[in-house]
Model the fold of this input.
Amino acid sequence: MNASAASTVVTRVGDGRPGRATGPARRAVAVVVAALVAVLTFGTAPAHAARTSLVVDEAIQARLGSGFDGTVLTVTPLDDGGYVVGGLFWSYQGTPVGPLVRLDADLELDHEFSERFGTEYARLSGVVRDVEPLDDGGFLVAGDLFSLDGVALADLIRLDADLRLDTDFQDALGGPTAFDSSDPSFGSAIETIAPEADGGLLVGGAFDRFRGEPVGTLVRLDADLRLDPEFAAAVGTGFDGSVEVIVPTSDGGYVVGGSFDGFQGTPSTAFARLGADLRLDTEVAARASGLLSADSLVTAISEVEGGYLFAGRFTTGEGAQLGELLRLDTELRADLGFTSVVGRFGGNASGLVEEVVVLPDGGYLVAGDTSEYRGTPVGNLVVLRYVTVDLQPVPDRFGSPEGDDVVGFPVAVQLDATVDPAGEAVVYAASGLPSGVTLDPTTGLISGTPTTDGLWAVFASAKTPGGAPDQQMFLWAVEAARAATIQGDPAPGVLGETYEFAFDIGGAPAPGAVEVVDGSVPDGLALSATGVLAGVPTRTGQFTFTLAAANGVEPAARRTVTLHVTRAPIGQVALEVAHAQRLAGEQQTVAGTGFAPGEGVELVLSSVPHSLGTVAADDAGEIRLQFDVPAGTPAGRHTVTATAVSGAASVDFEVVAHEPTDPAPTDPTPTDPAPAPTEPATPSPGDGDGTPSGRSGVSSSGSATGAVRSEVLATTGAELAPWGAGAAVVIALGLLLVRHRRRAS
Done:
C-alpha cells in the first residue's frame, strides 16, 4: 500500500485514569496491538530494498517541447546517433512536417530531410508504420502509403540516398496494389519489415493477398521481391490477426508480436516464437495465452540484456492491467516485477505505446499515442531513464533509552534518501503522523509539537518527481507529560571496593542532568547526569545528600538519601556468650567476630526485645560487651542478637531460677581460636530440655554453630515450675525426719 492510502493506527497509552494500567507495561502492550493492526491492515512488509523506477528525463522533455502533434508509429536509430521517425502527424514543435522526419542525436529537427516530405510541393501522403535504413544510405518505408510527388505508392517503397522514389523497386514489387486485403474493412497496411542478410525481406501486417494471391499476414520476399513459396507453405494459414513486429533470433527463428490469438489454429495470444523451420514453439504459445487476454497487443519488440522489452497494451486473463511496457526473459517468461518499475501511459484516445528504442545509456525512447506518463504531461515522444531511490530505515520511536516523545515538547525526525544517479530531486511524503507534527516534503524533516498521546504507525516515502516511491514504516509513541521522579535507596558501600548504584530516574520527557543539591556523596564516588553513583569509596562514614532532577514539568524531583560506607568484614559474622546459664540480675558477656572494622553493631536481648546498646567493632572486626541480665527476666531460653551492615548473628543462653550449675565461666575473648566443644553438664532439676552448659554461638545465617539453640525462649521457665515444687517438698520432708530422730535420741 502506498503512503497516500495508509491510515493512522492510534493506541492511547498511559492516560492515568483510574482502573487502567499506565507506564511502560501499558505502552508495551500498545506496541504489540499497533503492530498487529498494521500487519493486518497493510500486510507484512517485505525485506527493504531500494526502489527503482523509469522516470521522464526532464531535461530532454524540456527540449522536446510540444513534440509531435499526432501519433508516432516508428522510431529507427541511425548510425550517426539520430533517428528517422514515422507516423501520423503534421508538425513537430510547431514546424509543419510530413509523416516521415529525421531528428538528430539531440532530437532537433533535420529541416532539409523533413522538407523533402512535408512541403507543399513534395508531400508524402499516407501513414508511415516502419522504416529500415539501407547500406547505401537509402530507406525502406512501409505503412499505409498513398502518394509521393503525385505518384501513387504501394504500401512498401524504397527511397535512395537522395530520398527519391525508386520506381524500379515499385514496379518489381507489383505496383500500388501489390499488398491488398480481400476485406476492405480489414485494411491492407504493412505494419513491419525486416531485411535479411541474403537480400530477402520479411513483411508483416494486416494484408491477406499479395499480387492477387492469398497469403498469410506474414510473408517473405526474395531479393527480386518475389514471394518465397517455401516460406509461404511453411507458414500456411499463419497468424489469425495482424503481425506488428518481427525480430530474428540467433538460432534462425523469429519472435513475432501483433494483434492475434493464435498461429495455425494453436492459441498464442499477442506474441509467439517460430523456429528456423517456422514451427510454433508451443511452450511459449501456452505461456503467452496463459498470461495475456485476447485484447492484448504487441506493437514493438526491442532486445535488452537478458531478454526482450515489449511495447503495446497488456492485460492478464484475470483483467489485471500490466501497462504498456512488458519485459520478458530469453524464454519469453514475463518479468512481472518490471511492472513496478515502469509507470502507466495515457491521456490520448488510445494511450498506446507504438515503439520503444533502447538507448546507449540504458534508458528508453518511447513513442506512441500518449500525452502523459505517471500522470505527468508528455508528448508522443518521451525519454525514460532509470532512477533508484533508497529511503533509509527509520527506527521505531518507542522504548528508546532516552524515553518516548512527549505531548507538549518539540520533536524532530529526519528522513534520509539517496538517489542514483545523484543530483535528482527527492520528494518526501508521510502519512499517519502524530497530531501536531508535519513533514517538509523538500527536506524530509518531520517536526512539530505533539498534541495527543498515543501510538502511530507512520508510513514514510521518498521519490523523484514522476518516479515510484520507496517506503518505510515505523512506530511512533507519544506519551503524556509526567513530572520527574527519583527513586531508590543506595546500598551500603565498602571502603576501597568498587561501588555502583543506579537511581531510578523517571518522568516524561526524560529529565535532564541529575544533580546533588545538598550534602555530598562519599569521597571517591561521583554521580553521573543519568543518576548513576559510582567509584571507589576512600573514607568510611555515614553520608547524607539530596538529589534533584527536572524535565520542564512541575514539580521538580528531590530525594534525600543516606549511604553508609564501612570497612570490609573480616570474616563470617559470629556471636557467643561467656555463660550458658545465668540468674536474672547476674552479669553476662557477649563477644562477636567478622564485623567490618569501625562499624556500629546493635545488640538486642529477647524474647521481649531489650536493647543492650550499640558498640563499634575494633580494627580486627571484633566486639565485646558485658551486661546485666535484667532483673525480673523470666527463666528460660533467651537470645542476644547482633545486627550490623556486615550481617547479623545471634546466640542463646538460659536464665535459671536457682544457682547455675555450669562450670566456671570461660572468657569469650574474640581473639581466641574457635572454642572447643564443651561437655554437656548434668541437667539440673530445672533444666528440662537437657541443653548443655558452656559456650553457645550462632552464625550470621542464624543457624547454631556451638550448642543447639532452643526454640523455646522465656516461656521455658514456666514449664520447670512443677519440678521445682516437687524437689522442695522432698527436701522439707527430709529435714523434718532428721529433727524427729534427734529428739528421740
Notes: The two ends are 129 Å apart (CA to CA). Confidence is low (pLDDT under 50) at residues 1-29, 38-46, 670-745. The chain is about 10% helix and 40% strand. The longest helix spans residues 721-744.
